[in-house]
Write a structure and sequence with these properties.
heterodimer; A: 306 residues; elongated; B: 338 residues; mainly alpha; 13 helices; 65% helix; CALHM (chain A); transport (chain A); ion transport (chain A); transmembrane (chain A)
Chain lengths: 306, 338
């Protein structure tokens, strides 16, 4: 639909917007994943905590790794970090900037998962119902210790026969849910305060270093894109020439027949320019190797002075 | 749809409109969050008040700060506030305008949350159920319960399924009473907010309208200038990358095919076009100096005629001036005839 194309174009307008778009999509996906996941507490004394905490912490790790994988900049940053020095210096401030921006974007979806989990409360109820103090709740006060553990472990299971209309179960459930929600809101508050302070205070420190780091990190991204486009164009022309050459050599072989094949040589002249003299596999390989091992210096003054 | 595109373009046209859009979305998001949030009163004597007031007040604070965090103007404001004077003076009226406009927009989502919470009534019922006047509404002559017991019973009012004080005070009565007070508070809050907004809008033109117009203009200007600078830098980076890569390919081809006489004829034309867009900045050090200079010494708000040597630094030259010959304070831009 037209609407989506417009939104898509807006986000593609620069790569930071693309990253923000992906980050937002991952956050929405994490909420959707949580709501569609069928949480099913085992209601057994040792298993509850493992299950509850597992559901709370394992998917965030997965989402964090997905955030890193889907982010183009992480590859660019690694490449920039590990490349040989060549004729271009490395600027650690740029690498640090790229790393911190990648980490911040990758952290959004895991944090959303954890907060939604806490605000919903099921995970914490499942994990900590066995750790409750039975004295606080009337229905569990006069039961033997072994049985009380079993009963407390069954609190998350509303449909269990023992627990179906048990008011103490509801009391424990409410108590834990209340703590879970309070924890969720507190974490959200702390994160927002941290984000606010970071945005407010950042221009107060090293603003010019920040402008430079941001510019050059953007540059690295653009340069990589343009290099890929140039290589693509080159390989297309290379292939075209290769095939024409093949047909030309076929034509030579069957020249004895009376067919007169049209000359296809003229169009190739202009394209040879675009091939820039790089016309065989070894040369292309050497070019790609040099691009990695010896990036050109950031200095184009000779070209502009022609 | 054409209508949608128009709306989208309208909101993108400047930062303020964009922020109005975000502000509206956040207000809708806050109602959605409230209805999705599963309110769960603990029904215990001291926890109720903390939980109820927490849900009433903490999310609005979070939404308020979120309104600032999502607003790009905040870093613009901090930058404008902290930048060195350079060749351009600073006007505190502009900074105040920017801050006020951000704060006003950030207040909308919290106000919506508080209104929705009060009109719904669950928070107030949970927080204040232990303060219900049992003497007037219930059976205060119930002799067997101590004060602590009464508190515990009343704390369970919001939890119908575990409420056991029907003889003391009917659950329905207490809930209706608290809900009524909550809704009255809610409507009064909405009325108060609307009246304040109305007064601010209608009385502002009566006081210092000229100063307001100036502050608004220069605040928009700073926003547009920053955007254009970022676009120019991005354009520059693109041209730089093109020329750099072409240079690289040329260098490779001269290395590899020294014997051949085919030199790429198209390249100089391409390089010429891209090179023009480089605005004279052709290496890493010069670009860094330009960026540093942009922060440390913003150019004055005074457009020189092209023939005169500019104080702007890097247009056409590689060296931005570190000491401007005639330092000018930009108070002159704010002439007031009032």
């Amino acid at each position: 639909m037209d609407r989506f194309r417009m939104i898509f174009q807006y986000f593609q307008s620069n790569s930071e917007s693309v990253m923000n778009g992906i980050c937002g999509l991952l956050a929405l996906a994490s909420v959707k994943m949580y709501t569609s996941f069928d949480f099913s507490c085992p209601c057994l004394p040792q298993y509850n905590m493992a299950y509850g905490l597992g559901i709370m912490f394992v998917p965030p790790v997965i989402l964090f790794l997905c955030g890193l994988i889907l982010n183009r900049q992480s590859l660019a940053m690694l490449e920039e970090w590990r490349r040989p020095l060549g004729r271009r210096k490395k600027d650690l401030a740029v690498i640090r900037y790229m790393c911190s921006s990648i980490m911040q974007r990758a952290m959004v979806a895991p944090v959303v998962w954890i907060i939604v989990t806490l605000l919903d409360g099921k995970c914490l109820i499942c994990a900590f119902s066995s750790s409750m103090d039975p004295e606080k709740f009337v229905g569990f006060a006069n039961v033997s210790p072994v049985q009380v553990q079993q009963l407390l472990a069954k609190v998350p299971c509303k449909d269990d026969e023992l627990m179906r209309n048990n008011t103490s179960r509801k009391a424990v459930s409410r108590y834990l849910r209340c703590w879970s929600q309070a924890l969720g809101w507190s974490i959200l508050l702390i994160l927002i305060i941290a984000a606010f302070l970071a945005r407010w205070l950042r221009p107060c420190f090293n603003q010019d270093t920040l402008l430079q780091a941001r510019h050059w990190s953007n540059y690295i991204d653009i340069e990589q894109k343009i290099f890929e486009e140039t290589c693509c164009e080159h390989s297309r022309l290379f292939a075209h020439k290769c095939i024409l050459h093949f047909f030309e050599s076929m034509r030579q072989e069957i020249k004895l027949h009376s067919y007169s094949w049209p000359r296809e040589g003229e169009g190739a002249e202009g394209e040879e320019d675009l091939l820039r003299g790089i016309t065989d596999q070894d040369q292309v390989n050497k070019l790609l190797k040099t691009w990695y091992y010896e990036k050109p210096p950031l200095d184009v003054s000779q070209v502009t002075q022609r | 749809m054409d209508k949608f595109r128009m709306i989208f373009q309208f909101f993108q046209s400047n930062q303020e409109s964009f922020m109005n859009g975000i502000c509206g979305i956040m207000a809708l998001a806050s109602t959605q969050m409230y209805s999705a949030f599963d309110f769960n009163c603990p029904c215990l004597p001291h926890y109720n008040l903390a939980y109820g007031l927490g849900i009433l007040l903490v999310p609005p604070f979070i939404l308020f700060l979120l309104g600032f965090v999502l607003n790009n103007n905040i870093s613009m404001l901090a930058e404008e506030w902290r930048r060195p004077q350079g060749q351009r003076g600073k006007d505190p009226a502009v900074l105040r305008y920017m801050f006020c406009s951000m704060a006003q927009r950030a207040m909308i989502a919290p106000a919506v949350w508080v209104s929705v919470t009060l009109l719904d009534g669950k928070c107030v019922t949970c927080a204040f159920c232990t303060w219900v006047p049992v003497e007037t509404l219930g059976n205060a002559s119930h002799p067997h319960l101590s004060q602590g017991e009464i508190q515990r019973v009343l704390a369970r009012v919001p939890c119908k399924e575990i409420y056991n004080g029907q003889e003391l005070i009917a659950n329905e009565v207490a809930v209706r009473y608290l809900r009524c007070i909550s809704q009255a508070l809610g409507w009064c809050f909405v009325l108060l907010m609307t009246t304040l907004a109305f007064l601010v809008r209608s009385l502002r033109p009566c006081f210092s309208q000229v100063a307001f117009l100036k502050s608004r203009y220069w605040s928009h200007y700073i926003d547009i200038e920053r955007k254009l600078f970022d676009e120019t830098c991005a354009e520059h980076a693109r041209s730089f990358a093109k020329v750099c890569i072409q240079q690289f390919f040329e260098g490779m081809s001269t290395d590899l095919v020294a014997a051949r006489c085919h030199l790429p004829r198209k390249a100089p034309v391409d390089a010429g076009e891209a090179a023009e867009k480089l605005l004279g900045i052709t290496d890493w050090g010069t670009m860094n100096m330009a960026l540093k200079s942009w922060h440390r010494c913003k150019p004055p708000l005074h457009l020189h005629p092209p023939a005169l040597p500019t104080g702007n630094g890097w247009a056409g030259e590689g060296q931005p001036p570190t000491h401007p010959s005639v330092p000018r304070r930009e108070t002159a831009a704010y002439y007031s005839c009032v």
